[in-house]
Amino acid sequence: MTRADWSDVRERLSRLAAAPGSDAVFGSKGHGWKLEPPLEAEELAEVEAQLRIELPGEYRSFLLQAGRGGAGPAYGLFPLRRTEGRWQWEGDGAELTDLYTLNQPFPHVEAFNPADGLPEPPDEADFDSTEEFDAAEDAYWQQHDTIVHDARHSIGLLYLCHLGCAYREALVITGPARGQMWADNTAGDAGYEPLYDDAGKPLGFAHWYRRWLDVAEDQASHGSH
Fold first, then answer.
1. Averaged pLDDT, 32-47
2. Domain count for the chain
3. What is the rounded average pLDDT of the residues 156-183?
4. Would 35 be classed as within a structural domain?
5. What is the CATH number of the domain that holds 158?
6. Which residues form a coiled coil (predicted)?
7. DSSP letter assigned to residue 33
8. Please, what is the average pLDDT of the chain?
9. pLDDT at 117
């Protein structure tokens, strides 16, 4: 079975849904082990025409064979839905995907942190009054957030899931890392980084999804004891 073959996924999810220990898997109560229906070929063609790109092959085949969203890592895959004629992903953080610049290249191949080079937050001991410190602290964090959360950092990233606490993972759609899964850890000031398998190779969508499925089955098995 090739990684582009998703014929086993729904059966495995059905077994997980029925497993006594499946509640032990993080995020499973949110997605309930259910996938939304796959896209029709005509629907996918419309998605890609609107985005002006072709989605990476592994994710593309998942949409056509397995489902358009639902059961998946953490709280599940953001579903792709058509609203008033426009296709878009929905979920907590799905709005971070800029549909209008998704066809522009994500330039990075190595981890980077937009917060690098920023000064340290102000120290209250350096100020004569609480009011002065509060004003300086507010100004600092405003500058920090403007730089760290600049949408230009995530051009070419398709956000696919929410891990909780504003940590999210995304698929690189364009650029030299196309097809790789990356983590957006800016919520913890840790920046962006590619995800790797146990051998140190970048994770593509198929390996990323199947690794979650393997771990979920193992956790459900242990949770049932």
1. 98
2. 1
3. 97
4. yes
5. 3.40.1580.10
6. none
7. T
8. 94
9. 87
